[in-house]
Queue: 3 jobs
Job 1
Amino acid sequence: MHRRLLVVLVPLAVMLVAALGVPLSVTVAEREVQETYVDRLNDVGRFASLAETALSTGRTEALQLELARYHELYGIPVAVIDTSGTVLLGPRDAYREAARSEPGMGPIVTAALAGARPEPSGDWAPWAGSALVVAEPVGRDSEVVGAIVTISDLSKTRGRIMLRWAQLAGLGLLPLVALMAVAWPVSAWVLRPVRELDAASSRISQGDLTIRADAEAGPAELRRLAESFNTMMDAVENAVQRQRAFVSDASHQLRNPLTSLRLAVESLEPHLRAAGDGRQVYDVAVDELKAMQRLLNSLQASARMESIRTASPVDLDAVLATRVERWRALTATAGQTLAVDVPPGLRLLEPTGGLGSILDELISNALRLSDARVVEVTARAVPAGGGVVTIAVRDDGQGIEASERAQALRRFWRSPRHQNVSGTGLGLAICADLVGAAGGELRLEDGLPRPDGSGYGFAAVVALPVAESSGAPA
């Protein structure tokens, strides 16, 4: 996260360096070129005065030698031209070669022959390649007899400009490096409590209510946030513990009087007349007491299993090895057929209470509630989403309507068609909660096609994460 902070700070620093460095760089370039231009202007002014005297007297030998010496010393071709543009004095070949590569010097020479001092030519940017052309008229006003023209290569000047710019860029990077050196540890110090708080929130979302954030590190604002977070988690953990304790204690305390009540009711059986109405009332009372006992047992088991929120790796083959034969016996007793299609080697995270208990509940629902002929158990590994193993229990019975599937995962909900079937309405809800706590999902879908072609049966699909390594619990 501190990298994100640097992503904001670094561009700001770059903009600051650019805002300060660009005008300074432009000033350096202008000063270098201006110095070069002033030097050439002084040179052509001196040569123009010498050429005026030499041309008027006809003594051009000394000027010719000086122009050649100037070119030899500085590498700058300088020539005296007449009004037609013909070179009168100077290194003719060097001048003509340099003039051919400067197409923009024509207006400058024309202006000089007209008696004016033209502006310098060329693009002075360091990445440009044009030369500096400076011309000076020889003579005055209408008595101009020629012009002095110099063609200066600016490669050395541009090299000095680039060197200065590189030095300025290096100096400009120093504040940026200093800013990064300071911002990195500061951002790490500021954002470390945020990362720890994020990690704590992730652990809490997985069911660990004992985790707390570090309230001693970071800025004062983040320390106050961590303290508030810990206070909130203390309240949540206490509320959850009280709720679980209440359900567990209430279930436990109600079991003894309920058992006594059942014994008292069953003790009345010898005193009932076989043909009287008391027998029917007695049967209803015993059935209701049994249902209440099952409900209390389910509540107590739910509270006990919800207090544990860890998942552990398990081999699906090992789970099925202890269950399949019993499932076959149960389905055979009910006149049904069990089909198992599970590939070997599947390893997944087992929810609290055991994966076998969840599959037992799903098989029991298929036997009791669906009126099915065939029950099928399949498993597949799905690589998408980080790796998931799906276990499906399908049947070809009646099941429940598609509109009732969302309600079927709620506690104590029962389909109107199953009111006379033994059950508490807690089985699927507890299974869905335990599967979700292990990082998986329990969903209800269409099952196998019904034999009469009237639709599809019922299917419960358990999707659990793949266990990547054998051994340690997740």
Job 2
Amino acid sequence: MSRNNGMDRRQLLKLAGLSAAGLGLTAAGCGSGSGGSGGPVTIRHAWWGADDRAKKVQQCVGLFEKKHPKIKVKTDFQQYPDFWKKFNTQAAGGNPPDVIQNAVTFLRKYEAKNVLLDLAPQAEKGNLDLGGFRSGLEKFAEIDGKLLGVPVGSNSMALVIDEKVYEKAGITPETGWTWDDWYAALRKIKDGQKIAGDAGPYGVMYLYDLILRQNGKAFFTEDGMGFGEAELLPYWTEALERVEAGLYADPGKVEQIKPASATAKGLSAGEFTWDNFSVRYSAEGSSSYGLAPIPSTDGKKTGQYLGSLMLSGTARTKHPAEVATFISFMTHDPEVARIMGYDRGVPATTAQFEAFQPTDAPSKAIAAYETSIADAGVLEPITPHPAGADVIEAAFLRIGADMALGKTSPKDSVKQFFSEAKTALAAN
């Protein structure tokens, strides 16, 4: 299966829910440079990611400072776990960065602790432009009437496949295929090529959320868990059986090759992940890789939604207007899109979306994939995430991995997970 062909730009505009009117930036999008403070100020921006992202963000910051000479931006980046450790320390000490890269799993956690800045007043004052976003994304970080972040890009869950393995097996995943179809594909690949069909999806919280959503539930509610032991036990029991049967990759080998992916290293024919993560596979592996649709229970409802990284201000900032001006620039300026590409997902605004037209195969595939799921009409609102969701996500991944390695039984793993989830929710 190949998803690397060129795309119809009108199709992608349809996905974005865009219009020609959205191509213009308002005065709020340009910002005033000093946000009305009158003098030069310095704000701090922190994010997580690899060195390549850091270089790109630094370029964007340099461009911002040239266009807004009265605002200086001091930068800091870490790997994902280290970022949050440092941020928690800074927030506890009352000295967090002014602007941070953020994700939906952290919104309620830090909103409850009064760490995040409500950006709505800055939008009302004209310092933050909320126009020209792809349909619904400007409301992605609205919590209890507060605007706690602005999206910089979008992504959705997908199945990354080794196209050569799937082609050899004579399998072409198409929109509308079911979990039974997917399972049959795993068996055919295992029997015919002696390769595990999947890396092992049992610890991927966002995938399990889609499975639950397909069946009328969800991983989270606004206040807690949206499912119980009765749902998780058969899922993890079945997962262990598939590990033992070789349908899922050997978890010990998967751990050994990290941070490389199991599919890129030939341990499996596919794995579930965010679509914009797929850019890594060509660099890590020697095959060709594509994005396949998410299977569903009934061949129709996938439970999918657009996720997003975002930029959030912090409540202790002394320069909320400048923070808003910076965020507005990073989400609207066309040159930022040309620098960042799809590093943080498909650009969230019209101006940036139109500014960056991918030429590399992985980015074209991402855009084509998001076009296809939009045309299929499967996108829904994102599931709410309560405070503590980040801890619960980490527990789901860790406990699922331990179970697959044979350290604990599915029954004990399920009980441990819900015990840790209860503690995480109570602590927030």
Job 3
Amino acid sequence: MPARSLAIAGAGIGGLTAALALAKAGIAVTLLERAPALEEAGAGVQLAANATRCLKALGVYERVAAQAVFPDAFAVLDGRRGTRLAGGPMGAAAEARFGGPFLVIHRADLQSALLAAVRDVPTIELKLGHALESFTQDGAGVCLKLRHAGGEEALAAEALIGADGLRSVVRGELHPGARPSFRHRAAWRATVPVEALPARLTDTVTRLWLGPGAHLVTYPVKAGRAINLVAVTPDEREVHGWSEAGGRDELLAHYRGWCPDARALLDAPERWLRWALFDLDPLTNWGTGAVTLLGDAAHAMPPFLAQGAAQAIEDAVVLAAELADAPDIPAALRRYEAARAPRTARVQRAARGMDRIYHLGGPARLARDFVMRAQSESAVLERYRWIYDWRP
């Protein structure tokens, strides 16, 4: 039987992965999720070698890979002219370079694969429809106050992991002044069946189209049956949520003058969903006592390096490694935080930097494009070796 029991608030990608990692380390987990059901939400997810190595270590990689696509190449393109700025091979070449595969997958498929793995583990209890309202600490651990359809409930645990996202209740209790920072941009998402697009745009290539003030990312999902689109534009509406309806004409107005291929992609969806982009300034400390944070609750970041999910997965593996057989839970949590905070803060800063670089206009844009065209195929990936080469 597990020697200890922990609670995790939030059953997103980070919470599900943390539950699996902790269970593998011999720790019983109560996984709390305020939603009554885990439904399809979000857009596509890119998982680089740093994340897929973790999934392999946890024994869930094959489940994820079954619904994933493994891009053969990536391309960075001028959104207005359609010309190539940079790119190179992925697939076996990238796996050999960084010691792990790169894949793309719809967020719902990733979540479903992790959820299926969680349901197979008897030492993980998943409580849907249970919202964490508050918590207190004492010498024995943490007492959680929960609310569900039947009323209120108290739950005792030896530790609490806040994996409850950007609007984290746990972070709100620990750091009342740490508020999400609005990036003055929106991401619009849609998924299009491959039959609705020209064949030249449905191959296994991840494409990034850059233009003044906006960009577009496209790649295949659903085992190659659909193309995921994420269009990022300026926006001043701070409405939070994954599923705000987005006006198609409003979106397309940001891409007037873009090249025919980009417009063909943007014109295809009948329906777009929009969400405002937020991140967090790096926290000076994550937790206290027997409570800590994980994933977006600790280090929400812009999506411009495609590392949000990957960093949560890394968190989960390091957290479990520190807690396994640790006699002092608070000390183990502080070691976890010390190991993770510098890396995630660096990734956060780098993602913010890419926000500026992606959306340059005028002479600065021309200079960026010149530098990108001059780079070798391997240079773009090598620039991020410090991210992709991380190992648990």
